[in-house]
Amino acid sequence: MSLALEAASQDQGEVPVGAVVVRNQELLARAGNQREQSHDPTAHAEILALREASRRLGRWNLSDCTMYVTLEPCPMCLGAILMARIPRIVYGCHNLKLGAAGSILGLHDFPGLSLRCSVEHGVLETECAKLIESFFQARRKPGEVAEPG
Question: Active-site residue among 46, 133, 144, 147?
């Protein structure tokens, strides 16, 4: 998770989310969000890390890998994780706006879906949450109050 935090901490004007894909203790991919710089709404850290891991292994099936991500994946990212057959994801803090791995939705074990993965959360939760909170606090206008959640 510390490597995912490092990827998230690269200040490039992006929402600070980092993701890594690991296989047998080997780092295959590390990525941070790149939506702003690439003008691509799908350039989330998880998607970019999946693409890099697949390139490195020369295959789309990542069923022997684990993904670590600082923020709970959104529905798009969790769908991609499931499609890549990743059996386990570990995330730092909940995503109370778009979380799809248990906080709002539970796509990882949704009834009727044939693809599933295990989810662990709360790893370096405080550090992951502080990174996100600091990012949005720095962008608020003086006196502006954050929306609940």
Answer: 46
